From TrEMBL:
Family: Belongs to the acireductone dioxygenase (ARD) family.
Protein name: Acireductone dioxygenase
Localization per Swiss-Prot or TrEMBL: Cell membrane; Cytoplasm; Nucleus
Entry GO terms, CC: cytoplasm; nucleus; plasma membrane
Organism in which the protein naturally occurs: Lupinus angustifolius (Narrow-leaved blue lupine)
GO biological process, one term: L-methionine salvage from methylthioadenosine
Cofactors that this protein relies on: Fe(2+); Ni(2+)
Amino acid sequence: MEAWVMEDNNQDSRLPHYGSPNKFVSLDQLAELGVLYWKLNPNDYENDEELRKIREERGYNYMDLLDLCPEKVENYEEKLKNFYTEHIHQDEEIRYCLEGSGYFDVRDKDNGWIRIWIKAGDLIILPAGIYHRFTLDTSNYVKLMRLFMGEPVWAAYNRPQEDHPARQEYVKSFAEKKGMPLEAH
């Protein structure tokens, strides 16, 4: 997993958008925003003891797999456009990359973008209420495991959402933990 401060421009969203000069972002900096990360073995995810432990500890009792590529997704370009629209969720977004790669962009404390490049083996958790978006990179392929607590709910609330309870809770949590980084994995 790599992360950097993203140059926001109108070029193809699948390009890396490195800044000039490029500024990489550490796991600790991501953890301060509530973004959690683990590196796991994607080749044996069905028997991975660490994945089982994470799922058990965090209450992720539902799982499905999602292949994102032009050959397998109807209205592929439209779907990617929707994923790339800035939004929040009322629950955590948990994604485990099994194959391929893609980008999660999250807002930092100054409202700039941080681009997180996930590849096979990367498990990422975005907190409820964080503004974010997703796109594939130029490989145009990713296979993701999606994890949920209880029944799967995937409702995106496009920005602005400052009055949404999940956003208010995220902002409140961020203010309370300022200067107290969360543990990074």
